[in-house]
Every structure is written in structure tokens, then in C-alpha cells.
Amino acid sequence: MTTAPAPSSRDLPHPAREEIRLEGVLHALSDPVRLRIVRELAAEGVELSCSFFELPVSKSTTTHHFRVLRESGVIRQNYEGTAKMNGLRRDDLDDLFPGLLDCLLTAASHQSTRGHSR
């Protein structure tokens, strides 16, 4: 069951920690664009607005990718003024799946480096 949004219509629903499932996280991170978003969030270590990301997809597709990440429990989204802010749910993911996020980020970094040498 997804946590219900707070009274404001701008609050977005997020799964509670105990509702985050490994298969959902892996599905969310299986897409290169979503993995890129997570890598950038991890590298920056702070919440970032959607407009921070320069992605090679349309705005509607970008919105879809952020929704998949939020609904799987990988990121938390909230509004600050007119900006939708995105933060990695690292504490939740590390508690539920110890080492998984670091392992995936390291593997993605190695793959990215390998891809540039071709």
C-alpha cells in the first residue's frame, strides 16, 4: 500500500520503506536514463530539481522516468516552491538491500568508462 499524499494536492505518494521491493528497484534501475538520474543524484549528494538533469528524452518521457523511480522507492520527490525536487532514498535502500546501490553505481561507472573507450 502506497503512503497517501498529504492534504496538499502537490504532495506526491511514495512507498513506505517496508513496501519497497527489490524487483521494483531493479526494474527502475534497469533503464539507462533512470540509472543516469540515480548516478547524478548519488554524485551530487543533495536534492536536485528536475530541470537540473539534461536527458536525451522528451519532457513527458522524463516525467515518466521520475515517476517510475519515485513509485519504486528509489527517489523521493517534493515541491519546493515551483520546483520539483528529487532526492535519492539512499538510507532506505541501504537498510533494505545492503550494498546493492553502491554495487550498481560502481558497475554503472565501470560500464560507462568502458563505453567511452570504444
UniProtKB/TrEMBL annotation:
One protein family per Pfam: HTH_20
A molecular function (GO) term: DNA-binding transcription factor activity
CDD domains given in the database record: HTH_ARSR
Key word Transcription present: yes
Superkingdom as given in the UniProt entry: Bacteria
Domain HTH arsR-type: 14-108
Keyword Transcription regulation: yes
Sorted UniProt keywords: DNA-binding, Transcription, Transcription regulation
Name the record gives this protein: Transcriptional regulator
Provenance organism: Streptomyces fungicidicus
Lineage of source species: Bacteria, Bacillati, Actinomycetota, Actinomycetes, Kitasatosporales
